[in-house]
Amino acid sequence: MPLKTIKLIIEYVGTNYCGWQIQPNGTTIQEILEKCLEKITGEKVKVHGSGRTDSGVHAEAQVAHFRVDTRMEPVQFQRALNSLLPGDIGVSEAEEESHDFHAQFSQKGKRYRYTIYASPYVSIFEYPFVWHLPYTLNVDAMKEAATYLVGRHDFAAFQASGSDVRTTVRGLTKLEITQRDGKITYVFEGSGFLKHMVRIVVGTLVDFGFEKKKPGMMKEILESKDRQKAGRTAPSQGLCLEKVYY
Amino acid sequence: MPLKTIKLIIEYVGTNYCGWQIQPNGTTIQEILEKCLEKITGEKVKVHGSGRTDSGVHAEAQVAHFRVDTRMEPVQFQRALNSLLPGDIGVSEAEEESHDFHAQFSQKGKRYRYTIYASPYVSIFEYPFVWHLPYTLNVDAMKEAATYLVGRHDFAAFQASGSDVRTTVRGLTKLEITQRDGKITYVFEGSGFLKHMVRIVVGTLVDFGFEKKKPGMMKEILESKDRQKAGRTAPSQGLCLEKVYY
Q1: Rounded mean pLDDT of A49-68?
Q2: Which of A187, A230, B192, B215 has its CA 20 to 30 A from that of A89?
Q3: Between the CA of residue A85 and those of A7, A37, A116, B16, B127, what are the distances in Å?
Q4: Which residues does B23 contact at the CB level (< 8 Å), separation at least 6?
């Protein structure tokens, strides 16, 4: 049978999962996909994601690939997976790729969305996907502070402590903040993100929204490269992986 | 303590409930609200809804009222209820009304939305709120058939069998069908609805969408007053109570 490389676009509500990557304590998206593929193909299949998502983080379009000797077409894998997957995980697309495609190493960048609801009440339909802050935030102050972060910088101040990466320099090409009524949306685009980077940036921006810090201080925080200078880590349920670029 | 009439606007994901109204087998929204109000006030409180919703049906703005001797303000009831209610039920508004207000008897009409996804794949974020039909539907044919239903008619053909009401004449002021990609939305507005009426109308319209019937046949079905002539009852998960008019 021919060896095929299949690329999947996967969406999930992260609420009930310990993130993407297989780990000993708790159920993960990757683990569930591999178990379903084992049922379908009768063999162990390794699923490679574009990268991890934290426990509780959602995805509208996570990308993954696997290689398997099969006569099955991608759309048949999609249908078979969707019939086996739980209701909070879905495969929205499946297609064959060349064998040099790798969900993680071929990617060029990612887009994340973080959502805050700054109002006394948040709808139960939105609640699982937002950070509810029942206060008024100064959105203009957050927008001004955010301008200091766009570009190629050492984001060491916005990395979870205890991380171990070669370099903490990353290119943030976009950080767009929009508001509609109490809903504040932060869209991040970049070539790469450090561990918890989006959530720590949002947690820090909220301090500017509360006017605890003047917008210009964002430059000092960035240049300090000190996690202690940045704000708290915003909760995972407000974060969603929107797109992976190739 | 003064006697107060409190009006609540309630939203819920109906998936895990046996509808609005208290019944012996299974948990209902009304029952949960009454239990929470008993915890808050220390006494049994009867909650009156604007009407029933079927098992599995959602609501963005169900309306209910209760009367209680209390010094608590409406917003305090809202906060107390929201802290006790499960995550799939929320009180979005609470206000004091005059004592002649009655959620059911003061209402002037209702708006319902039914959603179909006519595409091979439906997003897991939408799935719990739609009827997934992985086929192509002729939306123009459904729109034409729908025109026969708008107005004041005897809707006996579109009533669940075994119902027992004084009259089956109802005024349907609006039946608007819109399509965006595979998502087809049906908005119903009227002074009153028979049991399962919206779902039977949608199930019947789908037969026209599949071109099993010519649009003009809708007139015959309506005039037959025969439930057997109409189509199947569309599943409850696609239905949402959008608004109650007073």
Answers
A1: 97
A2: A187
A3: 17, 10, 29, 20, 13
A4: none
Q: Could you report the predicted ipTM of this complex, rounded to two decimals?
A: 0.92
Alpha-carbon gap, residue A159 to A196, rounded angstroms: 6
Distance from the Cα of residue B22 to its chain's centroid? 16
Contact B138, B213 (CB under 8 A): no
Is B54 one of the catalytic residues? yes
Q: What does the pLDDT read at residue B36?
A: 98
Distance CA A246, CA A137 (A): 35
Name the strand (E) or helix (H) holding A142. Answer: helix A139-147
Look at domain B111-245 and name its CATH class. alpha beta
Min Cα separation A131/chain B (Å): 14
H or E, element range at B37: helix B29-41
DSSP H or E segment with residue B164: none
**What's the pLDDT at B132?**
97
Asked if residues B196 and B54 have their Cβ atoms less than 8 Å apart, the reply is: yes
By CA distance, what is A12's nearest residue in B?
B124
From the list A188, A28, A60, A178, the residue with the least C-alpha distance to A129 is: A60
How many angstroms separate the CA atoms of A233 and A201, rounded?
8
pLDDT at A25: 87
Residue A149 banded pLDDT, cuts 50, 70, 90: very high
pLDDT at B161: 83
Instruction: Closest CB to B13: pick one of A60, A92, A124.
Output: A124
With respect to CATH, is domain A4-97 assigned 3.30.70.580? yes
B81 reaches A (C-beta below 8 A): no
Give CA–CA dist B56/B207, Å, rounded. 23
Q: Which residues of B touch A125 (CB under 8 A)?
A: 11, 13, 60
User: Which residues in chain A are contacts of B12 at CB distance < 8 A?
Assistant: 124
What parts of chain B have a pLDDT lower than 70?
none
One fold for both A4-97 and A111-245?
Answer: yes
Spatial separation of the C-alpha atoms in residues B179 and B143, rounded to whole Å: 11
Summary mean pLDDT of chain A: 96
A149 token code pair: 């972060």
Amino acid identity of residue A83, one-letter, is S
Q: Hey, which residues does A243 pair with through a beta bridge?
A: A111
Q: Which helix (H) or strand (E) holds B104?
A: none
pTM above 0.90, yes or no: yes
- What ranges do the domains of chain A cover? 4-97, 111-245
Partner B contacted by A125 (CB < 8 A): yes
The reported pLDDT for the residue numbered A195 is 95
Write out the catalytic residue numbers of A: 54
